[in-house]
Amino acid sequence: MEQDAQLVQQCLQGDGSAWEELVRRHTRRIFNICYRFTGNRTESEDLSQDVFLRVYRTLGSYRSAHGGFATWMTSVTRNLLIDHYRRTKRDRITDSLDDKMPVVENKESAGRRPDEQALLGELSSQVQSALTRLSPELREAVILRDLQQLEYGEIQRVLAVPEGTVKSRINRGRIELARVLQQMGVRPS
Amino acid sequence: MNWTCEQTEARLSDYLDGFLQPAEQTAFDLHVNACARCTPLVASVSHVLGALHTLEPVEPSQQLVNSILTATLGPQSWRNAKRWLRSIQSPRFVYGVVSVAATFIVILTASGFSWRKPKLADLAPATIYRKAEGQAHVVYARGMKFFSDMRVVYEIQSRLRQDNNLPTTPESTVPQSSPNGQPGRTDKTNPSSPRQQNRADEIGRNLQVLAAECPMLTGFFGERRVP
């Protein structure tokens, strides 16, 4: 966190290599938030690029006293995702089925048999698909809490809502996700 | 503590995250184990939570970082140029450049390069070498001449010092108000004795011999009063 703040200071002094370091440190995390929110790799890469572009332009407004750089960046990402969601709401209805197919995370995890990996990959695809069916408010809360492992306080800063609202959204998001998965035929084993 | 289905749904995340108080936990467990509606709800949400935690991070494409850097800092070549420009702003590099420039200026000046009327031909390495070599010889010859001159001067000074250190009549032996004192002398100096006069004549002769051997010192001795 302190290293991020130091890199930001160097960036503001015109150090391009500090910015490169910041980009390399946060690209994967930002891309994953975008991907879990949209379920589309191409869109997520474009959105990630937009996030960094906005962060680069507004870097001077970042104050370390208001929270970590990662939280601030997540907040920028969230705002862009909501904007993107509203902008593409109509387009999404007419999207082709192919474009909506989620990427199967078929990373080979150590100690798993091929059939277990196949099942896990299928479950991941179903969860990703179910996530994109949640409302944006519930989706972002679940992503930040259960996928990005943020604390309630951090989520509160990112979403700019009271802690009670954060808890309520996370709870409703999880219940809604379970309901969607049940509708998709996924049941607890 | 009575626990309802609404409470179960509202506090489900607290239960799954372990935020319930012991009494609430007990009441929650008692209710869920007995409630046909809440049991599947808790099971399905627990399953979802487990499934969310098994989701692996997705790797972005290799080009993403480059695309971001190009969109923010410019193309790769431009970034490299800026990085190079930044690196030459380091104090070590600046000191190095200043040292090289100073050395170059010193060599050029020593080789007789004219800064007022600079010529491209004067910057040719062969010309610089030839002129620098000539200048080095001149400097060496001047140095040697200066050194030998200094030797002569030192020799003369040491002889003069040797002569001045000869014993003279102690001043204390001549009383201030001696009746033998020459009348009219007010500088309180003693008159030269015949022995001192002889020594001064000898110094004068030595200086004349040295002047004959070293013509360059003629002017130097000419200004001195030879007794």
Structure overview:
The complex is a heterodimer of chains A (189) and B (227). Chain A is an all-alpha fold and 189 residues long. Chain A folds into two domains: 1-103, RNA polymerase sigma factor, region 2, helix turn helix motif (Rna Polymerase Sigma Factor, Chain: A); 115-189, Winged helix-like DNA-binding domain superfamily/Winged helix DNA-binding domain (Arc Repressor Mutant, subunit A). Chain A is built from ten helices and no strands. With 227 residues, chain B is mostly helical. Chain B has a domain at 5-51. Helix content of chain B is 66%, strand content 0%. Chain B contains ten helices and no strands. Classes of the chains: A mainly alpha (189), B mainly alpha (227). The A-B interface holds A 15-17, 19-20, 23-24, 27-28, 31-32, 35-36, 41, 44-45, 48-49, 52-53, 56, 103, 105, 107, 109, 120, 123-124, 127-128, 142, 146-147, 167, 170-171, 174-175, 177-179, 181-182, 187-189 and B 9-14, 16, 41, 43-49, 51-61, 64-65, 67-69, 71-73, 79, 82-83, 86.
